[in-house]
Amino acid sequence: MQEIEDWLIKLKQSKKLIIVEGKKDKLALNFLDINNIIIINKPLYKLTEEISSKTKECIILTDLDKEGKKLYHKLKHDLQKQGVVIDNKFREFLFKNTKLSNIEGINSYLEKLF
């Protein structure tokens, strides 16, 4: 439990842009007082251009299902080509330490833990 609390604190303190798949993902993170979020709501090439013009480092928190993994790898590849560094530690933590499969379910997952 302490690990997930530490993860949340570090994510909140991070000033890096966080990319999520949809509105429900953003709302779930907003509920946890995490606000530096952008939703994938346009073609990836446009999103990549927009992000690379705003920042040089970001976090990708797409869902941990098959489609989310494909989206993550595509975004990561395209952003890195634009010179954006991807911070993987937050996503890797979820894979290794939780049974969470989608970001929008993070609040109910945390409620069960606490």
Show unreliable segments: none
* SS-based class: alpha/beta
- C-alpha-based Rg, rounded: 13 Å
Distance between the termini: 8 Å
Label the CATH architecture.
3-Layer(aba) Sandwich
Shape: globular
Order of helices and strands: HEHEHEHEHH
Compute the number of helices: 6
Number of strands: 4
β-sheet strand percentage: 5-15%
Q: CATH topology, anyone?
A: Dna Topoisomerase Vi A Subunit, Chain: A, domain 2
Average pLDDT number = 94
Helicity level:
55-70%
Number of domains: 1
Walkthrough of the structure:
- This protein has 114 residues and is an alpha/beta fold.
- The chain has one domain: Dna Topoisomerase Vi A Subunit, Chain: A, domain 2, CATH 3.40.1360.10.
- It has helices at residues 2-13, 23-31, 44-54, 66-81, 89-97, 106-113; strands spanning 17-20, 37-39, 57-60, 85-86.
- Strand 3 (57-60), helix 4 and strand 4 form a beta-alpha-beta unit.
- The longest helix has 16 residues, at 66-81.
- The chain is globular, with a radius of gyration of 13 Å.
- The chain starts with a helix and ends with a helix.
- 20% of the residues are buried.
- The model has no long low-confidence stretch (mean pLDDT 94).
Task: List the keywords.
Dna Topoisomerase Vi A Subunit, Chain: A, domain 2, alpha/beta, 114 residues, 4-stranded parallel beta sheet, 4 strands
Question: How is this fold's topology laid out?
Answer:
Blueprint: H1 2-13, E1 17-20, H2 23-31, E2 37-39, H3 44-54, E3 57-60, H4 66-81, E4 85-86, H5 89-97, H6 106-113
Parallel strand pairs: 1-2, 1-3, 3-4
